[in-house]
Amino acid sequence: MDGVVGALGPRGQIDFFVSHAGQDAPWAEWIGETLERAGYSVELDVWDWTAGTHLVAALERALERAHRMIAVISPMYLERSWTSAQRYAAFAVHAEESEGFLVPVVVSPCAAVPRLLRPLSNIDLVGQDEPEARRRLLRALAPAASPDIRADRRPGHPPATLTGRTMLASPPDHGPDGAAGARGVAFPGGVSAVHNLPARDHFFTGRGDELQVMSDLLHGDAGPGLTAICALHGEPGMGKSQLALEYGWRNVTSYRTALWWINAEESTGAATGMAGLAEALGLAVSGGPSDLRRRVFQELSRSGDFLLIYDNVVDKAILDELPSGGHVIVTSRDPALSDRFPTVPVGTLPRAQTVLLLRRRAGRITEVEADRLATAVADLPSAAAQAGAFLAGSRTDPGTYCETLANAPDGLSLTTVASLEELARRDPAALDLLRRLAYLAPEPIPLAAHRTSGPDEGKAVLGRPGSLLVGDAATTGELVDVIIGLGLATVSDVRMTVQRPVRALVRASIPADSRRTVLVRAMRLLATADPGEPRTPAHWLAYAELTPHVVAIIHALDDQPCPEPARFRGLLLATCHYLQACGQFRLGLRLATRTHQRWTAVLGADHPDTLAAAARRAVAVYRNGQVEAARTLDVETLQRRRRVLGVDHPDTLTSASNLAVWLFTLGEWMKARGMDENTLARRREVLGSDHPDTLTSAANLAVRLAALGEHEAARVLDEDTFTRRRHLLGEDHPDTLTSAANLANRLAALGEHEAARALDENTLARRREVLGSDHPDTLTSAANLAHRLLALDERAAARALAEDTVARRRRLVDEEFTDPSESGRQT
């Protein structure tokens, strides 16, 4: 509701501190500028916290100075750990002193608002145009404070002075020539509905000519329905990624469908980016990379109003297929990119811009010192940015630092090494964290804090599902702050990224006799992630984010063999299971095969985890069409599990269930039936009638009964299984949908074609929604429905659906092999 949220009290030197999630920076900036133009004083980390600032200490000082705190509320804000820590710290410390201290400003629809915020008077800006949003904001916060302090601290205003040195307190906006301009902050109400841009680099300097050329290329006449492409080429450290990011943020309001950043250095990273875009667009996160990419591109092509940024492309084949009608930016070190796409070369900065960048980042150096340092780093943008961050976060004299770098042949390496030495001196625990993260992939790493006491000790308290647990909220924040403060990593929301050059230098700096220990500790850190049950589609995005890091560890183990902690082995098995469940059969097979072979050599063939890997490998082999090989592998696994674990162990029963599927597919129906009956009886006794594995056995047995002509018995068993799964797992769980498809087959076999058709139509619609149109199970439902339509003499509809299904299956043959059997299998 509109109205006064709380009167200004006597304490504090500024009126408002603005807290926000990284991707809501445009809203925070607009709110800050709007309030300052109305006479309020504002502190906003984007404007006022330079590189090297200790964020936890700065937050405490800001809250002490502020009369009130504005929380920019969005789904991102409510789930991100660092802003959550800010919000709850603010409320806990100041709620008793001032009833209206915390002011929530809602900028995006939120499904659930924390209890802590519900009693507060929200300022709702969702869906409002700029005049109405401004009116609501100012009316709710009236009366205005005296315009006394900070009118000169907005972007575009002159620098303040402090202790005789010129302090660029905020990054000025730049026009096309890179000079400071007077452009105001754009109203963010038109920000792309779907975007995942990393946090903006508010120290970005210059590059006006390159930005103009990029704009000209992307907005030229590409032709009807064609995609406009702009490639950025340059050697490492030239700032290609920062240039693409700045273009994205400057044009964030121009793309109404999507503006999406894809880490394209490795195939797993690109697949993760596409999975995130699929979820953001409301599509199913399932299927192999080609299937998922095709569905996302079809959705984007419907409007053509999008920008995709492929960062650090190594394999150009990733660009062979693109959506139509929109814009694509590619960054790469490969000069051959210019043979395919219009290319903007990205080189070193002009000296004046390097000096400006250094002075803005360091904050405490003279122009002469900045010029000397620019010479030392050879005007390399990344090295200059890291050097500035180093000086901002350390007590090192600029002259001494210049002398250290003066004779360096590689500015980026020397600035990184110097920052690592400073990190070791200042915070050894932060260095230890960075070393562990350096063994992961050069993709965003989801981090979270956890509880340190109480009944939920050790559980995540802040962050996304599937995040790595670093420590309690305060410790996690401090470790992250010092790492990013020295320019050794970047953070967007709760994801930290260690770029490949820095990652390599960090790993090289680890003493040889400590590398195995650090790698083991990296695995333990990664294993703190708990993405959930791998067969549940809601968990697949969390697994997609973790998969590149799991694969990176596997590569590291090839170079540095060492024991894998038990929890990491569990995560690795779950990742293999996820890849098979979501339809990434080829990657699932490669990972399961390498895991089984490595554990056989390290742990022994009879170790329970080795046997689990063998079972995963057998499923992967089967999913890739090698049924006889799957049977051979599972026969051996079943024998070993019976001997090592016992005949009634759940893992042994899983092997028996899987082997029955392989036997059935090979035509040994009676033998498969006997194994399924035995396994179902044992699972009911050991696990109970409602356990998911027991229900899988029941579903499998019903398939065997139907194949042997016992349709009524199969129907009864399938109806019971379907009912139990709906109750226990929900209507849209993949296992429930499997039971629905199976029951429709039973109904059709008994002549109830209309009932079978209705159930198949419902199942197909749900599978398309949950799994995607090209998932193997969805195509099975489509084929089943075509049979129902044919049985009901709807030949034209049956033919159209069958032809579409055949075309989709053929298209997938070269991408992800699928098994030919009917649904109802243990995997």
What features would you describe in this structure?
This is Tetratricopeptide repeat-containing protein. Pfam families: TIR_2, TPR_10, TPR_12. Residues 147-181 are annotated as: Disordered. There is one protein chain. This protein is an alpha/beta fold. The radius of gyration is 29 Å and the shape is globular. The strands form four sheets. The chain has a five-stranded parallel β-sheet with strand order 2-1-3-4-5. Strands 9-10-11-8-12 form a five-stranded parallel β-sheet.
Helix content: 40-55%
**Strand line-up across the major sheet:** 2-1-3-4-5
**Ends apart, CA distance between termini:** 53 Å
* Strands, count: 17
The largest sheet is: 5 strands, parallel
Unreliable stretches covering 5 or more consecutive residues? 1-11, 47-56, 144-183, 817-827
If you average the pLDDT, what whole number results? 80
Q: Outline, from the CA principal axes? A: globular
Radius of gyration: 29 Å
Tally of DSSP helical segments = 32
Assembly type of the chains comes to: single chain
Summarize this entry quickly.
This protein is of the alpha/beta class.
Identify the notable features of this structure and list them briefly.
Tetratricopeptide repeat-containing protein; 53% helix; disordered N terminus; 5-stranded parallel β-sheet; disordered C terminus; single chain; Rossmann fold; TPR-like_helical_dom_sf; P-loop_NTPase; Toll_tir_struct_dom_sf; 827 residues
